[in-house]
Specification:
By secondary structure, this protein is mainly alpha-helical. It has 16 helices and four strands. It has helices spanning 46-65, 85-100, 106-116, 127-131, 139-149, 156-169, 185-188, 190-200, 204-220, 248-264, 272-287, 312-327, 333-348, 377-390, 429-448, 458-463; strands at residues 7-10, 24-27, 221-222, 227-228. The strands form two sheets. A two-stranded antiparallel ribbon has the order 1-2. It has a two-stranded antiparallel ribbon with strand order 3-4.
Length: 464
């Protein structure tokens, strides 16, 4: 396959003032001997699933590194790496893959992106955009890195943003307009708030999220259909064939967001059972709409002809949520596992020769057609989420909530703006003198500057 011969360059962003480390050339791992073929009647081989995930995740990195990062960012270049919801969804899936195996440098790539954007979030240009759930989705990536490092700077900007939003999410009396007014928001923000509560022990994040989640539910939930309308505009709309408009990816955002939120929600949280009830109701309805021919779903859930054909982004989220539900004892294995296996078989078959998932509907707000050459970062992210749960179908049920990640060992060297580097080879006297001055300045930073990790201040940080 052509993609297996492509080279991938993974370069961790250096701290300010550092010279770039040597470029590490990697080759996209090839597909396994079985390729993309899976048997829908059998549990998939974990190694095969992992190889397919590594292949497509690395292919996506190659594509991203061929696209420059534009300043300012515009809609025309949102295929470049960014901290918007599009990139965030891919990076969330990549982080889950790195938990299983990191043979392609996924974690280094996540850190490179986070450090490039200084762990920041979009939307600071206005209060409205500071509340936008799309701009909060990247917080999951920062939380993942923070869980591993314990460095407060890695969730500091995120925590500040969430603190700003808390009063607005639970205003009384309830305003006429929702803060999170579209169903996609239930993937973007609630898991971040729930995990922030778990990471910090501050339940304000969980309670504020909970209040807004159910306000969205009350506006957009259809008890008749067991699905969410995308937003209030669609409650009265119909398709060309007179059916209600229920967007495939829109409902995919909801169930995938529910899974990620429940994963970190305390077992004794007051409304947890209500979330589980919505999740099970949606999964039952979605299961009934699976296409018989390929195990996937159409982009318009109740009208398979408007538009016709499979759509992979919503399908990936459904497969992820179903497999997650089985793996956590939330869904009945006998009922849902055959659907997951059939869906995974169909989904994997739509990986294209370039290594990316095809038939990914482009960014939008309603059902639209897609084709083999339509790829999207959120499609790759959904595929990675689905695969990381599919590969665990043969394992024991995992209890909820899941334990937080085990923290990495502390670094053995202090990281500073001036890099520690060897003297220049065959350097001139002038070059050697410059190197010696730089290293002396670096040593002064270590000797004279206060370090909370080394000088007793970590207690203050924990008390904040």
């Amino acid at each position: 396959m052509l993609a297996s011969a492509l080279a991938i360059t993974l370069l961790a962003s250096p701290a300010v003032g550092q010279s770039a480390p040597p470029v590490a050339e990697r080759v996209i791992p090839p597909l396994p001997p079985q390729g993309l073929r899976f048997d829908p009647a059998a549990l998939p081989d974990r190694a095969q699933v992992l190889a397919v995930l590594n292949h497509t995740a690395a292919a996506q990195m190659v594509q991203l590194q061929r696209r420059p990062i534009h300043i300012p960012a515009t809609l025309a270049n949102r295929g470049s790496i960014n901290v918007n919801w599009i990139s965030a969804t891919y990076l969330i899936g990549l982080a889950r893959l790195a938990r299983e195996q990191d043979s392609i440098g996924a974690r280094d790539y996540l850190r490179s992106v986070a450090e490039h954007y200084n762990f920041g979030l979009l939307g600071g240009w206005s209060p409205r955009n500071m509340l936008d759930a799309d701009n909060i989705a990247i917080g999951d990536v920062y939380q993942e890195l923070y869980a591993l490092s314990g460095s407060p700077g890695e969730i500091g900007p995120l925590r500040q943003r969430l603190d700003y939003t808390l009063p607005y999410l639970q205003m009384e009396p309830e305003p006429a307009k929702l803060v999170w007014w579209w169903c996609d928001a239930l993937f973007m923000a609630p898991p971040v708030y729930a995990r922030m509560a778990a990471l910090t022990g501050d339940d304000r994040y969980l309670h504020a999220m909970d209040e807004q989640w159910w306000r969205i539910h009350d506006r957009l939930w259809s008890s008749e259909h067991g699905l969410f309308f995308r937003d209030e505009r669609f409650i009265t709309r119909t398709t060309a064939n007179g059916q209600p408009v229920f967007w495939g990816r829109g409902n995919g955002w909801v169930v995938a967001g529910l899974a990620r939120t429940l994963e970190v929600m305390p077992a004794d949280f007051a409304s947890r059972e209500r979330y589980l009830q919505v999740f099970r109701t949606m999964m039952a309805r979605i299961a009934s709409l699976q296409r018989a021919q390929d195990g996937l779903w159409t982009t318009s859930l109740l009208d398979p002809q408007d538009p016709a054909g499979p759509e992979t982004t919503g399908s990936a989220f459904y497969i992820y949520a179903m497999a997650w539900g089985i793996n956590h004892g939330v869904l009945d294995r006998a009922t849902y596992q055959p659907l997951v296996l059939k869906g995974w078989t169909g989904l994997a078959s739509l990986i294209q020769p370039n290594g990316l998932l095809g038939h990914a509907q482009r960014a939008g707000d309603q059902p639209e057609p897609s084709g083999p050459g339509d790829h999207a970062l959120y499609g790759t992210g959904g595929f990675l989420l689905a695969g990381t749960e599919v590969m665990k179908l043969g394992q024991a049920v995992r209890a909820l909530p899941e334990a937080e990640l085990v923290r990495d060992p502390p670094p053995t060297e202090t990281r500073l703006p001036i890099a520690k580097r060897p003297p220049p080879a065959d350097g001139t006297a002038e070059a050697m003198a410059g190197w010696a001055r730089a290293q002396a300045e670096r040593q002064a930073m270590i000797d004279l500057g206060y370090d909370p990790l080394l000088d007793g201040g970590e207690t203050l940080d924990r008390e904040r």
